[in-house]
Amino acid sequence: MMIADARISMHESLSGLLFPVLSIVVTVLGCNLLGDGLRVALDPRMRARGD
User: In the predicted model, is pLDDT for residue 12 greater than 70?
Assistant: First the structure.
């Protein structure tokens, strides 16, 4: 609910919105990179192609 609370004062200061949004972006990016790494490591079809 931090983003919803910061939306009220967004016009006065963006710093209250910046940190929650950045934490969501970093979390999503990290999960995507982890998923890609696991797919490369564990998918036998990718190893057979040599990619």
Answer: yes
In 3-state terms, what secondary structure has residue 1? coil
Residue 20's contacts (CB-CB under 8 Å, 6 or more residues apart) are 2, 3, 6
CA dist., res. 20 & res. 41, Å (int): 32
Task: Give the tokens for residue 18.
Answer: 């910046």
The token pair at 35 is: 């998923």
| Residue with token string 């890609």 | 36
Q: In the prediction, which pLDDT does 36 show?
A: 93
Distance CA 43, CA 8 (A): 46
